[in-house]
Amino acid sequence: MFWEPDKETISREELEQLQLERLESTLNRVYLNVPFYHKKFDEMEIDIDNLRSLEDLRKLPFTTKEDLRNNYPYGLFAVPLREVVRIHASSGTTGMSTVVGYTKNDIKTWSNLVARVLTAGGVTKDDVVQIAFGYGLFTGGFGLHYGAEKIGASVIPISSGNTQRQIKIMQDFKTTALVCTPSYALVIADTIKEMGININSLSLKYGLFGAEPWSEAMRQEIQDKLKIIATDNYGLSEVMGPGVAGECLERNGLHINEDHFLVEVINPDTLEPVPAGETGELVITTLTKEAFPVIRFRTRDLTRIIPEPCRCGKKFIRMSRVMGRTDDMLIIKGVNVFPSQIEPILFDIEGTEPHYQIVVERKGHLDEVTVHVEVQESIFFDEMKKQNRLINQIKERLASELGISVEVRLVEKKTIERTEGKAKRVVDLRKI
Amino acid sequence: MLKIKNLESGYGKLKVLRKISIHVNPGEIVTIIGANGAGKTTLLNSIAGLVRLKSGEILFDKQDVLKFPPEKIVFMGCSLVPEGRQVFSTMTVKENLILGAYVQQRRKQRVIDLESIYSIFPVLKEREKQLAGTLSGGEQQMLAIGRALMAKPKLIMMDEPSMGLAPLIVKEIFNIVKRLRDEGNTVLLVEQNAKAALGIANRGYVLETGRIVLEGSSEDLLSNRDVQRAYLGRDLDSEMKI
Known about the structure:
The structure holds 2 protein chains of 2 kinds. By secondary structure, chain A is an alpha/beta fold. Chain A contains 12 helices and 23 strands. In chain A, β5 (177-180), α8 (182-194) and β6 form a beta-alpha-beta unit. In chain A, 44% of the residues are buried. By secondary structure, chain B is of the alpha/beta class. Chain B has helices at 40-47, 70-76, 93-100, 114-120, 122-126, 137-149, 167-182, 194-200, 218-222, 225-231, 236-241, and strands at 2-11, 14-24, 29-33, 53-60, 63-64, 78-81, 155-159, 186-191, 203-208, 211-217. In chain B, the strands form 2 sheets. Chain B has a 6-stranded mixed β-sheet, sandwiched between helices. A 4-stranded antiparallel β-sheet of chain B has the order 2-1-4-5, covered by helices on one side. The A-B interface holds A 14, 17-18, 20-22, 24-25, 28-29, 32, 49, 52, 79, 82-83, 103-105, 108, 288, 290 and B 3, 5-6, 8, 18-19, 21-23, 25, 205, 208, 211-216, 220, 223-226, 236, 240.
């Protein structure tokens, strides 16, 4: 099932011509309109007129999240702000989160691409779509919302949270398609059971899940418990939001919307392309974005390209489901957390050592984080009251910095496991 | 139908087109819009073989046209309606049209089908015996298009058909171009009159100083603010103040 059949079944030859045309006009625009790229290309003595094929893209520098932060908030916009009709920001909770903008045309394109993903996942105009992604700066809620409206489905913009109410609405409004994170889908499934509701009395048919990595086992569990067909979709706010790629009902990899995004898979250490079909870091160049084009954006997501054609008939290549990250970013309850955010806080608090370990577990279907912190010996000789005060102090600082609540446990000096002299910062016990 | 990759072209040492990649699918009207001096005419002349490329690739019907002289390119099915019509003013309308069928003489089935041209442009039938130089600007433009159609081209390239014509005549000409498309013809239309061109085209490219800076469906280009400001004559800054 296709939303834009002529575009989604384009031949490779036609696609490559289109990609080349769009890449060249994108490069002309970023060079003209974005000082960051202009300066960078000049410094590297890159004459964009000399780039003549899709492969020549490799001669261009990468763009990183760091570059986005350094140009906070509007530095990388390619159009004046008055042409921007929407602003989103990524879920980083530090002051320097990354800000992205959309023109009217960008919103139209975005809606269409999400409509493709939803259509591939089984959604039609006859569906009632419950969107339990957060609405706000996060791109998930609005992205899926506009796509579902574009299709003509009936959209319930319930946003996230209040699970019992979600289920009540699901029952009363006869929701047929659920859109949220996979972990929240399981919370909903378990709550349905606790509430004593027969799953067969609901109208659910399809679930489209994204915004965090999840496994085949988890898909099976969601499908069994909710009695739906569950598909995975992928996107990131720096590139557009949801709508970059999505699974079809074959559920065997995510079709990349290649007429709008040019993808590469690189070895994150050598930065060279990996051999076809091998796992590496996904790098994305936008081909049609007006307000916020990005050139070779390093997503830090690990995946591989599945070059074989798909039985669904869509001609776009597929990427495997995201297998992890190349940096140490953790996604906890949908919030991006970098361990490096924790270090300066510990430095700041008297009595602690800058040695810590983050332990992430999944209790039930929700993530729980405990930060183990090494403290100076004197603390352990002192009274409990002082220890508790320290724990609370660390907890508060971490909660306000990270945007999620964490548990804190104090441990003695040099008890945190070190490999090659370096502490192991993250222990992820979640089975994804 | 037409596929161009990294076309670089110009006159002597002067580079006019820096790097152009475009394509035209069968049955479409594709328009190239841009200001004076952006390189629009050079682009069409390069495709027609009138200006030699410095580098790049032009495939017409999967054949590389670079090897061929202009007359062979016309014979392959790619006709140009040149800027400023260029009708032979001392010849009659009919003679001009018959000249357009020149390539038909080299094709096996030689048909001089004046009637189909007259059905599209009835006014040319009325003026059949008149000298082309005595026609009005609009009529000359129709004659130039008719002459190109006589070669039964697969792709018709038009260079500024609206130039110097009254708005009402422009509308008439563009309606005819649209009708040609609806009857299955393929058109590459170069225009300064962006509004009229995007009004009938399926897709478009924006050419600025020898480079493509935007491409997209006509609808998308019409709603792009840069296009509105630069080519559609809308002054957004003054609109914002209201």
